[in-house]
Amino acid sequence: MYVAVKGGERAIDNAHGWLAEERRGDPAVPELTVAQIREQMRLAVNRVMAEGSLYDPDLAALAIKQARGDLIEAVFLIRAYRTTLPRLGASNPVETAAMAVDRRISATFKDLPGGQVLGPTFDYTHRLLDFRLAAGDEVPAAATVPAQTGPVPHVTGFLNRDGLIEAAPPCDAVPPDLTREPLELPADRALRLQAITRGDEGFILSLAYSTQRGYGRTHAFVGELRIGAVAVEVEIPELGFAVEIGEVELTECETVNQFKGSKTEPPQFTRGYGLVFGQSERKAIAMSLVDRALRWKELGEDYVGAPAQDEEFVLSHCDNIQATGFLEHIKLPHYVDFQAELELIRRLRAEATAASRQEAAE
Amino acid sequence: MTETPITARQDWMSVLAKAPPARLAALMPDLPPHDLLRSPETGAVMVRGRAGATGAAFNLGEMTVTRCSVRLAGGAVGHAWVQGRDRAHATRAAVADALMQTEAAPRVRADVLEVLRAEAEGRRAARAARAAATKVDFFTMVRGEDA
């Protein structure tokens, strides 16, 4: 018999009231402002924007505050919010070659036009806890030197001139959009890149690491990693021309991968690509490794059954909101399902007991 | 190089869109009478990138954008698309766009656009100078066999 039940409204209201109180913490400690989170928890804000797939630092900071610092919960809030926004259009593809770089390094060429620019990096720090931060010391101003203006060309451009790396010819076909049509497999590279750039950083990191350890090895070098601001240009329909309507901070990683040739391609370097909202270096590097691993089919490489080569596995499991939604739903009431399971087990036990009694009697 | 009217308008619309909303409000505290042809509306624009920086386009993720269109009493129509969710920013930018098509243009250019442009250039230069200070100067160590 199916019995519908109601109840719990008072308990739920009170739970949410307590949640608000716990979120606030000790009232003797000053409350965090959204601006403080936006300015001082920038990398958390960046991650929520990247995985929430919506660039708006204030909203991401608010989501982090509301979620008590649970970044996946914050991503969930951003994903829910973005569904309420009308889609006004799409930008022209961003020109990362024209990026105002805060950081730009190459692991493949020491001397390159534009130079190796370290930017505000954790690299070369000793990873020792800095107790001056706990004391709240004043921060001295960062050093400055007059900047040379000049182009900062992509490293893959030099290799391309010599024909040693596969070309990436422009194509302006309208790319498929995961947020408009459900994911269909096989997916083209554009769809894979969209899925990975909004995918969970931890999942993409682990997959990328698995390729380095031999599960679909691609021998990646970081040809170039750059972080900085790029202009976003949009065609304004009422005017018939394009306007730069804003700026986003992006991290771009291009890997150069060893490739000894295949049935269809000559020996040359191949490319993996990562592009992520905000200063999100680990994610961009990981993305470029996973992108490269997933390209085995178009490059005529062997499928060795590695998880990072399996686009169905990668694309179906990289979204942390889908994953956490399905994972966490099992904690919600399943009283009726479980009742049925319980009935089944009782019946099977009764039958087994009856059978063994009969055997004993015989 | 001579500027065509469209590139000049693209340029000022961009300066207005990228301005910090509070600065634009400080520089243009009072708006002339205007009708809203399209009330400020916040939505999302899908930002696109290219695979390998130069290849096929793909969808990177959305950003918030607010748009607005106005008509001044004299008939000039102004449009704005600005990043973010600030309705007042979009309205002000649309009014400024309309004013730039009237005889008020030289005043708006001098009092608003040039100020915003200089401030944006200052912010850009400040970051570029910090980045330049982190540029690596390689030098060759004394080689073992030279010692």
UniProtKB/TrEMBL annotation, chain A:
<dbReference type="GO" id="GO:0016829">
    <property type="term" value="F:lyase activity"/>
</dbReference>
<dbReference type="Pfam" id="PF05861">
    <property type="entry name" value="PhnI"/>
</dbReference>
<dbReference type="GO" id="GO:0019634">
    <property type="term" value="P:organic phosphonate metabolic process"/>
</dbReference>
<protein>
    <submittedName>
        <fullName>Carbon-phosphorus lyase complex subunit PhnI</fullName>
    </submittedName>
</protein>
<dbReference type="InterPro" id="IPR008773">
    <property type="entry name" value="PhnI"/>
</dbReference>
<keyword id="KW-0456">Lyase</keyword>
UniProtKB/TrEMBL annotation, chain B:
<dbReference type="GO" id="GO:0015716">
    <property type="term" value="P:organic phosphonate transport"/>
</dbReference>
<keyword id="KW-0456">Lyase</keyword>
<dbReference type="GO" id="GO:0016829">
    <property type="term" value="F:lyase activity"/>
</dbReference>
<dbReference type="InterPro" id="IPR009609">
    <property type="entry name" value="Phosphonate_metab_PhnG"/>
</dbReference>
<dbReference type="GO" id="GO:0019634">
    <property type="term" value="P:organic phosphonate metabolic process"/>
</dbReference>
<protein>
    <submittedName>
        <fullName>Phosphonate C-P lyase system protein PhnG</fullName>
    </submittedName>
</protein>
<dbReference type="Pfam" id="PF06754">
    <property type="entry name" value="PhnG"/>
</dbReference>
